[in-house]
Hints:
Elements: E1 7-8, H1 17-31, E2 36-39, E3 44-47, E4 50-55, H2 65-70, H3 77-94, H4 100-105, H5 110-114, H6 130-139, E5 147-150, H7 153-161, E6 169-175, H8 176-186, E7 217-220, H9 227-231, E8 234-239, H10 246-251, E9 263-268, H11 273-282, H12 294-305
Parallel strand pairs: 1-9
Antiparallel strand pairs: 2-3, 4-6, 5-8, 6-9, 7-8
Helix pairs in contact: 7-11
Amino acid sequence: MDSGTWKERNRERAADLPGLLEQLLGLHAEAAGLEWITLPWLGRPTAVQYAFRGMACRHWDIESTLQHVAGLRTHDAGPLARERELIESFRRRSWRSLRDLERNYLGISAADVARDDPSERPLSWNGESIWSVLAIARHYGVPTRLVDWTHSVLIAAFFAAITNPQCDGAVWWFDQTRFELAVHEHWDDWCVPLRTDGSGQRAMEQRAFDDKATKWISKIHHGIPFHRMEVQGGFFTACGRLEMRQDKAIDQLQTPDRNGIPRGRVIIPRALKKRLLDELERQGLRATSLDYPGADCAGWQLARRSPDLGEENRCTHAVVP
Length: 321
């Protein structure tokens, strides 16, 4: 793993919990520092906001679950077909368990439900709704190209500490406001066209799911409300090409003043993980309050590792890192 220019705030790891909390809360203070910049498409000053991602092992890269679980690290016909196969399979297998709004995005009508026979109409991979489809699939554990972030440094710290007690964890962070400013400046370089509805938004799906894909990265907007995303203060980012590592993509972005995106990491020493979790629980941050399926994850991992389970019974849920 090469963290590139994601500088570590604590190269000499915090020796105690107060020191670690000081480093984490220092980032929180920066993010709430009342700095304002103007985003051209809004035409008014906007408060700077940071994004955070907790990783249970400091040596992990910022990869999507599609890369991590399905191993799709090139952008050609085979991996693209595998991505579609995963989503289409989820659509066929899950429709009885979904909410009406989710079924609607997946192209399953009320008539399909009434006759207990989901439509075989293929999904449209060239429309804006495909991002909501990917968000639904990711919410239920399907490997996708989406990567989740949070606006809370403490929630990120929870996810950096909750698993892999034998490893140092890491909280990755970047300046989301300057990230969005840089993305806005690069759309034409990435050849991503405007939508035809007059919204001023870019049709990212036109440069993502075939051989016309370009090397863009962006926050993903979707129309599905998820309780888990709300309580975790979460959002998704995605890249145009399957082989792109998101930490490297953010590395390469520059704002209009030719500066890089402020970004970095705070290391969570393995020796402090349990004490950090205890402190977060005292502050009300625990698996249940974050709608984190910790026990389910443990069960899924055991099912996937058990040699006694037949393939038809083996759980295929992806565990969110």
